[in-house]
Amino acid sequence: MIGTLRTISAIVAVLIIVMLALSGTGGGFVSGFTDMLLGPFISALAFGNFLETAAKLTLAGLAASMAFSAGCFNLGGEGQVLAGGLAATAVAIYLPELPRGLALTLIVAVGFCAGGIIGTMSGILRAKWRVDELISTFLISAVIANLGYALLVGPLRDLDSYLIAAPPLPSAYQLLPWWPPSRLSAVLVWAVLLTMATHIFLQFTIWGYRWRLRKANIEFASYVGINTASIAIVSLAASGALYGLVGAAALMDSGRAVQGFTNNLGWDGLAIGLVAGNRPRWIPIFAIVYTWIILGAQTATVKSGFSFALSGLVQAIIFFLVTARRLEGKNIA
Questions:
Q1: If exposure means fewest CB atoms within 10 Å of the residue's CB, which of 9, 141, 266, 287 is most exposed?
Q2: Torsions phi, psi of 36, nearest 5?
Q3: By C-alpha distance, which of 75, 59, 73 is closest to 111?
Q4: Angle between helices 77-94 and 100-129 in degrees, nearest 10
Q5: Of residues 190 and 305, which shows the higher confidence score?
Q6: In a 3-state reduction of DSSP, which class is residue 165?
Q7: What's the pLDDT at 298?
C-alpha cells in the first residue's frame, strides 16, 4: 500500500513540475497542459503509436522485472536491446530472401538469443566469481554501445545512405501494421501474452517461488537447498533475452537500424521495472502511464513552443523518483 502511494506521489510530482514548466510558455498553461493530456489521443495515428510504444515499454519493463524478481539488478538493458536489434539486422541483411513466416520467426529468435547470451555472461560472472551484476551489466552494455556504433559505420552500414544506418529491412522481416498509418502491430499481443506468462511463472510455479525466496532472503534460500547461483544466471539471462526481444521489436518498428533506434528503451524499461518490482501484472499499467506522460510532453513541446528538453526532463524526473523510492533504505554498494 505504501509503495503504491509513493508511486502515485512520484507521478503527481512529475505532473506538477511539468505544469509549472508549461505555465511559462507562450501558449499558456491551460493549452499546454491540455496538449499534454490529450496529445496521445488526438488522432488514430497518435493513438496507434501510443499503444505500440506502450507495448514495447511493457516488454522492456518485464525484462527488468525478471531480474528484480530474483534479487538481481540488470543495468545493461540498453546494450541488450541494441544487441538484439543489431543481431536481427545482420540476419535480415545476409538472409534477405527467406519466406515471411520463417524470416519473422528467425529475426525474433536471434534478437531474443543475442540479449539472452549477454545477460548470461553477467549471470555467470555473478555466480562463479561474485562480480556484482550492477557493474558487469553496465560495463558490458557500454562495450556493446561502442561495438554497435562500429558495426553501423562498418560492416552493417548502408552505403547508399548518408545516415549512420544499416540498409532497410526486406519486407519479409517487417511486421504488418494493424492500424495504418500508425505503427501498431503484433508487438501489442506479445506484450499481453508475456505479461501473463511472467505473472504465472513468478506467482504459480515452484521455480518462481524459488526466485522470490532468493530475493527475500538469499542466505535462507541457500540454507534450504535452493541453488541461488543458478537462479542468478537464469534470471539475468531471461532479463537479457526479453531486452533482446525489445530490440528486435524496435528494429521491425523502425524498419531499419539507425543510430539511436533503441530510443532509450533499456533505461525506460528499467524505470518501469523499478516501480513494478516483482509484480509483472502491473507493468502494462505503469508502461501506459509512463508512455502517456512522455508522449504528452512531446506533444506539448511541439505545440507550446517549449524547449525540446521538456521530454527529457520528464524522463529524468520519473527515473530519479522511482529509483529513489525503490532503493530507499537499501545498501547497494
A1: 9
A2: -65, -45
A3: 59
A4: 140
A5: 190
A6: strand
A7: 76
Please report which residue ranges of 95-227 form alpha helices under DSSP H. 100-129, 133-153, 187-204, 206-216, 218-223
* Grid cell at residue 76: 545493461
Q: Is the pLDDT of residue 81 over 70?
A: yes
Q: What residue type is assigned to position 64 of the chain?
A: A
3-state secondary structure of 15: helix
Q: Cell numbers at residue 299, please?
A: 506533444
| 271, amino acid identity | A
Question: Which residues are within 8 A (CB) of 178 and not within 5 positions of it... i.e. 6 or more apart?
Answer: 48, 184, 185, 186, 188
Report the alpha-carbon distance of residue 15 to residue 3 in Å, rounded: 19
Taking the C-alpha atoms of residue 108 and residue 123, their distance in angstroms, rounded to an integer, is: 22
| 151: its cell numbers | 558495426
The number of angstroms, rounded, from the C-alpha of 180 to the middle of its chain's C-alpha atoms is 24
Sorted by where each starts, the structural domains of the chain and their CATH numbers stand as 29-326 (1.10.3470)
What is the residue type of 153?
A: V
Cell of 48: 496507434
